[in-house]
Write a structure and sequence with these properties.
Elements lengths: L1 H16 L51 H8 L18 H7 L8 H16 L12 H5 L7 H10 L14
């Protein structure tokens, strides 16, 4: 009688461990691993058309294979990389917009302040939410009131007379 009871206990333990899969929404860092967004591959080497027309090398300067992601993104989207304001990465045509939007000042530590506010918000919302019997998407629960309903926003813009694209149908889940 002990052996079947032990087998049943083992089967139950294995079945319960299968329920512990974490969702992709668990956005907490699991370790100090590398940041894959900081790795920029170099451009492929290419031979110039005229070796005599090459500029003199400058120590500490850039070369043609160095990456400049902002200028590359501007060029890929059809813009002119030369139109960037030197040293800022802002297109010259948008300098007025940036000036107007920063007229009340720009906080240099906005990321740190936002991270601290978000940590305090999460701490307030997680009280009593640490105990869970079944796998639950805590991200959806915590930020539910902060989420914008795209269909309601689309309707509000349409009522205001703004031209809006057609929205996908509401999913019935």
């Amino acid at each position: 009688m002990r052996i079947p009871l032990a087998i049943i206990g083992l089967i139950c333990a294995v079945a319960v461990t299968g329920c512990g899969q974490k969702s992709l929404r668990d956005i907490r860092s699991t370790g100090p691993g590398p940041d894959e967004f900081l790795v920029l591959p170099p451009k492929p080497l290419s031979a110039p058309t005229d070796y005599a027309a090459l500029p003199q090398p400058t120590p500490g300067g850039t070369n043609r294979t160095d990456t400049n992601p902002q200028a590359d993104a501007v060029a890929a989207l059809g813009g002119k990389p030369s139109a960037l304001v030197p040293g800022s990465g802002i297109p010259a045509s948008d300098a007025g917009l940036v000036t107007a939007s920063s007229r009340y000042g720009v906080s240099p530590n906005v990321r740190q302040a936002l991270a601290a506010e978000d940590a305090a918000f999460l701490k307030r919302r997680r009280r009593g939410g640490r105990i869970k019997i079944a796998p639950v998407d805590r991200y959806e629960q915590i930020y539910a009131k902060e989420t914008l309903d795209p269909f309601a926003a689309n309707e509000a813009f349409r009522r205001a007379g703004a031209a809006t694209p057609s929205a996908p149908p509401v999913s019935e889940e």
